[in-house]
Amino acid sequence: MNTQAYPDLDLLVASHGHLCPGLAMGYRAARYALKMVDRGPGLVVYSGSGGCPLHAIEMLTGCSRDSGTVITADGEGWAFYDSQSDEGLRITLKKELAGHIAGDRDRNTKLLLTLPDNALFDLEAFSPPGSGDGGGV
Length: 137
Ligand SMILES: [Zn+2]
Fold this sequence. Notes:
alpha+beta, CATH 3.30.1330.130, 5 strands, binds zinc ion
């Protein structure tokens, strides 16, 4: 498929080995997050799951499990937290789209790459667990 609209996606696909709905999802989530959160040394990603989406997120954010900047956490989607500015957000795939991830792989990948950010994802504020300012109960 034509990925020219996303030049950095080609690098990602080369590293990942294939283009799949999960990779497309992680790619879009990371790009969306980085419009709002700095890709700096303070950035930490909280993820409840790994796999293809997280691979894309690690590549785009520069965060990794090895460096301790990807933290396994409960919750849906992915949370991006900049500890330097104390700003964070959680991005989750819209519920009505969740059923579209299984099924026709090429069609779903295309959908995930072409829908606008706000049609793909829900956003909410995020504070890391234990920060004491509203992140917990
Ligand atoms: Zn994949």
